[in-house]
Every structure is written in C-alpha cells, then in structure tokens.
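PROTOCOL LOG
Step 1. Enter all chains and additional molecules of the complex.
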Amino acid sequence: MSDKVGRRSFLKGAAVGTAVVATSLAMDLSLTKDAEAAAKTRALPTKWDETFDVVVIGSGFAGFAAGAEAAKAGAKTVILEKMPTYGGNSIIDGGLYAAWDSELHLRQKLNYGDDSAALHTKDTILGGDEFPIPELAKILAEGAPDALNWMINEGGCKLKPVLAKAGGHSAYRTHICEEYNGRGYVEPLHRIALKYGCPEPRLQNEVTWIWRAVEGGPVLGVEVKIGGGGRSGGKVANIKVNRALVLASGGFSRDLKMRTDHYPYLKESFLSTNHKGATGEIIRFSQNIGADTLPMTFIQLYPYADPESGVLDEAGLYPFNGPGAGVVYVTKAGKRFVSEQERRDVVSFAQLKLGDAHKPTYSIFNLEMLQKIGAEQKNLDAFVAKKRIAVSDTVGGVADQLKINKAALEETVKKHNEYLKSGKDPEFNKPITPQMVNMEKGPYYGVPQWPAVHHTMGGLRINPKAQVIDIFGEIIPKFYAAGEVCGGVHGSNRLGSNAIPDATVFGRVAGRNAAAEKA
Amino acid sequence: MKYTFLLFFLAVAAYPDAGFAAAQEPPGKCSTSCHTDVQAVLPENHMLVEGEDNISSCMQCHLPASETLRDTSVFSAKVHKKHFSEKKLECTYCHIIEEGLSFALPGRESIGVPDAQTMKFLPEITAEWANSPFLAAVHSAKDVACSSCHGNRLPLLDDKPANKTCFSCHASYEELAAKTPGKDHPSRNPHGSHLGPINCTVCHKAHEVSATYCLTCHTFDMNPIPAGKQ
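Step 2. Run joint prediction.
Step 3. Record the structure below.
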C-alpha cells in the first residue's frame, strides 16, 4: 500500500470522524492507538430535524453579509447565533473601516492625498510581515469600497465626514461610522439580510458539531444545542445543509485554552477587548473534519484598551485614530516610547516592555486633534465625567490629573510641536504629515491605555472563493468561512480598521458562493 | 344536569399536596364539598351563572385571551392563587390532563400537549409564580397570570416571550430608558445600551434570577434589576 493511501486513510479516521468510515475502509486504517484516541468519532445523525440551503454560523459582520448574499441569491438561509443577543464581537467592535475609496470620496474631499487598492493591499501584506496570502489581502482591499457602499446604500450606514490615518496604514483610509462602534455596520448588514429574506438570527443556537460523512465528501450539516437555562436543558437538533455551511463564528481571544496552547505568553492575566462568546469550538470542529489552519499563534493585542477593564470603548479608539492627527503617546515619566504611527503589535510590545510598573501609558491630544478624528464634545464630556479621560486647559494640568511627570510632559509636547514644524521626528522617525496638528492650543486631553487581547489572525485556511481547505490542500466541499475564524488574510498582524472590510467582503463572497452550490 | 349556581372562592377543604398526583376524574365540582354558599364568593353585582357545576361555567365569560373581558388574566390569577397556592388543590381538580395528549378545562379544547417535563415542572413553576424571589411572583402579585406572557396555550419550558408581549404592559424601550438612566452616568442605561433593543428575556427572567447583561462585561454600579440577585 502506498504512503499516500496510508496518509489519507489516517484522515478518514482522525479528521472525518463518523461511523460511515465503515469496515472496508477501516481495514486501510494505519492509526496508532493514540491517534485513534484523539480522533473524535461520532455516528452521523439518523435523521435531520430541519433542512436549509445555506446555514451560517455567527451573526457578526461576516454572518449577516453571508446571510444577505445567500438569501439574495434565492437560498433558504438561516443564521445560528449561540449568544442571547446578535452581533457577536462585531457589535462591540470599534467601528473603523479601511477603504481606499467610497462613493462619498472623503479622501478626495478632505484633500488627504492618494490611495489605491494596490496600496491598501501592500500595506496589509507588509503590516502582516508578508504572512498574508496575497490573493486574500487583494480581495479585501479591492472589495472594501463596494462593501462599504452597499452598507451605505442598502443598509443606511452613516459615516462621519472624517478620515484617519491609523497605525500601520500609509494613507488616510480609515472611515469612522456615526456610532463610533461596530453596531454602525452590524445594523445595516442586519437590515440588508432581512430585506433579502434571510430570517432573524436564531439566538442561543450553539453549534456543537459539524457533520461530514467521508473524506472527499461534503459537509452535511450541524448539530445545534437550542436554548437551555433554568430548568430547561435545552434541546439538541440536527440541521442538514443542502448547498453549504458558512462559518462566520469569529475569533478565539476569549478561549483561554486555545489562546495559551498556541501562545502561552497570553495567559489569563491579560485582559481582552472581546465578548465572552469569542471562543474556538468551531475551529476545533472544523479541524476535526480535516480543515487546515494558518498560524494560530498570531494573536493581536490592542494597545489602547481601557487599562482597568480591557474594554475597547470610544475613548480607547481615539489613540488608535490619533496618529494622523498628531497624537503623542507617553509614559508616566512624560516621555514618548514609540512612533505613534506604528502597528498595533509594535505599540503593544513597546508598552509591555516597559513593565507592569509602568502601566498605563497615555495618549495626549488637544481638542482640535480629537475633532479631526470625529470625537464629539458631548462624548468627550461624558468620558471626563466618568473619569475615563482627563481634560485641562494646560498640558501641565493634564499631567497633574493623570500623575504624569509634569515638566517632562511639557517638554515632550514642546519638542513634538517642533518636529511637526521641521517635518522630522529624530527620536522615533515617525513620518510627519501636514495634517498633523501642532499642540500649541488647548484644551488638552489625556487617555490612559494598555494592551489587551484583541484579534486572532490565525484560523482556518480558505481560498479566494472563501472555501475551507483541508490539510492536504483540497477543498472541503460545501464548506465556507469568512471573517476572524479564518487565517491568512492578515498574517502576523492585522492592521486596525481592516477587520470590518475583511469580514464583510469575505462574508459576501462566502454567501454568494454557498448559495451557488448545487443542492 | 343543568341548573343555576353561583361561584367560587371560599374553599374549605385543604389538600396537602398540590400537583398532578392523585388525579381527579372527572374534574371536581365546585358546590359539593367546598362552595355550599357559592353566592358568597362572587363579587357584588355579579351576573347569574348558568352551566355545569365546575370551572367550565366561569369560562363561558372568563375566556383566556378574551376580547370582551379585559380581566381574564386577573381572573385566572385569582383562581390559581386561591385554589392552587392557598388551598393546595391538585391541578387536576379543575384541569383535565393527559400526559402526551392534552391539557384542557372541562368542555373546552386542549391548549397543548403536556410532555413528561411539563408534567414534572408545571406544578412547581405555578407555585413559584405565586410565591418566589423571581419575576413571575412579581407578576402574580399584580394578578398577571401565565397567559399574559405565555399566550393562550400551555406554557413550554423553553418559552421566551417576545419583546412585544412585555411591551403590551411595559410601554417601550424608549419609555423604559427614560425611567432607567445610569446611577452615576446617564449613558449607563440598561434600556439604552450599545447592544440595541435586545430581547427583554436576556436580563429579565421570570422563573430564575434576573441579571443585568451589561454586567457580564462591565463593572458599572448600576441600579438593581427587579428580582435580581440581592
């Protein structure tokens, strides 16, 4: 028997995982006892409780986008959501959307220079240290404006009339929605999905298994735990997919085991910006039916989370959107410690290297900068009232409130003003742009910040059609994935504001292709 | 046998164990052992009631979800509190119950199929509705009966009433939000959160401890939720 058969037979037992791998195939198995134990074999359901053309797991950006496109193409579609509310992690996302253009043409109107799909692709690939799969990065960048227009035109998405040049991006392309959070895109996508006949997501419907019969065969359906709580144990149902299953189940930042299995450094003491549902079971079930993954070690820290809670609120977005407006990051000692235009991983590790004694660091703004990145006065006032941020008419006043070394901070701001004038940052070599604001005029604001676990770049391997690929490089039939559950789009580091275009664009691709499968 | 009689409320017999056990067949008569003077238990000016000597006579007018009588829930609440909770009558004293088949009042259509789980839990849950630390008891205190939340059918263990059911008494998200601004900061409002108009039942649970969903992620000092953890 050839090696190939032996290897592929292993997959039958270890990954496919059903009783359909019957006696004649079982004779081929070259499983060791350990591998056999590791293989999760479960008998296929004897009956299906329901059947849909397309089943989508997850109700975030990718899930609603896929549901909308599948329903639009005429597929009988259902979205399963394990949480009691829809929106997943997307609805608490920061609401930033990178696109090199849109029908609003904000960049052109604001006279913010040039951009292109090619440049956005290049930034995405370089920002991920060349780990991104170029075809996937290109699809993200090329599809970003159209997906944004779709949400504006068909879903009522509203954008602020500003653009940010956020960390890692070489152009002003970060759009900010009115809500300044992900709900500003989730609701439009939700509306579009309903409009095309995709029903409301089924809440508290947790997928507990993915069924695939034989190697080379298609995904057949899912097992779902419905409801539960109180006296009810919930019930278990099996749903058959006629055309395809679409995974839009998000990342695993809150799955402590999966996170530390791949990246032990990110232990429990790290806070996370994510909702509690951000766990990795769908990745495990997919691996169990043969799906390949791309490096699960690539887990992003968000450098500017609320140091107390790990929450990523609007105040925690100002530091990220601030670089293009000239924000300055400082330590308690009042000194800069990194180029503010750096990527999230660089800024995060610059902070962590300072040590816990230096937690938190701070972003220093003046009001004009904050206005440039869409901060509204009423929100700034509310954050001040909550003591989330500090305000003063003087730089020294902010330093006093936040217990930053006053003389050093005043000196740092003064020097930074000079760098903007000279167009050079001799300390950290930050690229200076004419849009950056000289901080000569108050009032001044200070925002505390510290890294928290934010985004898992690793995940399932997909091809440009959003089809999930198995460990031998072959397509798993009728099996699609989009958004954070996938790997390969962002490589080792996702650029901020690339997540929504990723999830939305690939959600649409997956939904369309899933609906086009033969029933 | 048809005769005129008057109904209810003063029961004399005490039945020690409420529930489905020791089923009565057929459903008990009102007048034989308890309501010898049934007229005394009716409200003043109540019309004369004709029909069988059992609950079905009441149901001629006090229909579930009746459009003509707005107090059907109140009627049901009062009857259950008195006969079930206080006097510990079996469910089957009034209801005709066949596991796996039907759940009805005499002379009326079945309102659902009680499965084994329902048979097990319905007496317990009804007792809890009458008296417990949970939101169901807050409703029973206002004479709001099962059907107000569960509809005109046998409640299911997994029922999660839709928001519009809650809003039939509790106005709207907007009006609720106006009443519940955050203690320290108005924006920390459970009815005006960044998650939008989520299902009421995410936080408000009638048959278990209610809990503010905001606090699964945030550590705000929020106003206590009714029937929540004290």
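Step 4. Note key features.
Chain B has two domains: 3-154, 160-230.
Residues 3-154 of chain B form one domain.
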